[in-house]
């Protein structure tokens, strides 16, 4: 039998395996063509055979404005079909209710899109932001207590002390006259200072010492955001080997290592302190305590690499996003002196003669909160998010096939002319409404559904304190310029956001 098999090996291969292989290839081609024809039925612009729609709507102001004009012309469309390069289709949701539907589907039905989030894993590791399914469930449960209101309340003195550092820095720059500050840079230093203290009780002095190591970390975060966009918006960079060997790939690895090093340093220092019994000066249990000591649902504590990933996620998500929120809020208030004065009146009446903001003051700073919300509408710190639908999604007459990445462009939904009157106008009074933008999902700076932002309350409190105290101490006047948004991982400005400050 063995001999017969050996003798006829080539014939067996030819008559049995070859047809099987050809059938499999034909089935694959058929499924690709079927998917293609489904995608081609969806509304969307004409596709370039090679680039798809890559060159149509870029991340800079020109591309964003083009998309906003597209929205005006296709005001009733709920989706748009895009294609990145020759094969990768992407659906962008243009309707808030549909965005809500996608975000409210079970997290197992809408995991994070691997293509969009893979790059994040290279510098953040597998933390809460990127993990999926069961791992996400148990991790979210484990980390939620770190964001309870009682814990946020215990950070009030840190928010206030760190704001004092910023205010004193600006006071010394102003002297008896005025000074011009780049609010993006100073907000970033402030939020990093806060998160390092709250996450690991680490006093970095980064606001004052611009040569500190922490500032290298900030530039690494800045570069990572820039390189991520470079990597997804230039076709050859989509080929992993090409990117690896390119100068940008080299820089990318350097930046990823720098970011990981920062969290490793922090975790190792705390482990060392625990082992040696050294007393760490802490105001409260910080995030790292919770990570080191809390068991997951199976009773195990997190491994070092999991802890590092969570630390990287907290440090990254916890400072760059909030910095963007603070910077745009200050810039918009500096552009609208009448609204700024109204805020100041509110703050003065709440604080009386006091400087520091207490927990019980927060609810009374209603108008100031509305100003912050409105600037996050126009300039959402996280401009877009992406999920993959794990089951066919029927939208009116269309089918979005299972496995398709679905992008939710928060930045476009926040200015959708069908839902927002005068969408480009800065008008905080919109937030008197219970449902601004007419839908529960027209305004989603912190996303919505199961995987919404865990740090929302932390961020809003931190933003409110620093913005209110700045307005209380300084008069702001934004240096006029054409605002050029830059939609990277975080929404930035292509040019510096300069504001003239004068002590009150
Ligand atoms: C103004 C500030 C902030 C904004 C606008 C913001 C926005 C968001 C958004 C839109 C998401 C969803 C991301 C996605 O689906 O891919 C998210 C998730 C997340 N955010 Fe924030 N964030 C802010 C501040 C913070 C802070 C201060 C922290 C932590 C200290 C934080 C930690 C996280 C984490 C861990 C996730 C993942 C949650 C999960 O998947 O369960 N964020 N954030």
From TrEMBL:
Alphabetized InterPro entries for the sequence: Cyt_P450 (IPR001128), Cyt_P450_CS (IPR017972), Cyt_P450_E_grp-I (IPR002401), Cyt_P450_sf (IPR036396), Cytochrome_P450_Monoox (IPR050196)
Membrane-crossing segments per the record: 12-33
MF annotations from Gene Ontology: heme binding; iron ion binding; monooxygenase activity; oxidoreductase activity, acting on paired donors, with incorporation or reduction of molecular oxygen
Cofactor(s) recorded in Swiss-Prot or TrEMBL: heme
One of the Pfam families matching this protein, by short name: p450
Residue numbers binding heme: 453
Matching SUPFAM superfamilies: Cytochrome P450
UniProt keyword terms in alphabetical order: Heme, Iron, Membrane, Metal-binding, Monooxygenase, Oxidoreductase, Transmembrane, Transmembrane helix
PANTHER family recorded: CYTOCHROME P450 FAMILY 4, CYTOCHROME P450, FAMILY 4, SUBFAMILY B, POLYPEPTIDE 7
Protein family per UniProt: Belongs to the cytochrome P450 family.
The name this protein goes by in its record: Cytochrome P450 4B1-like
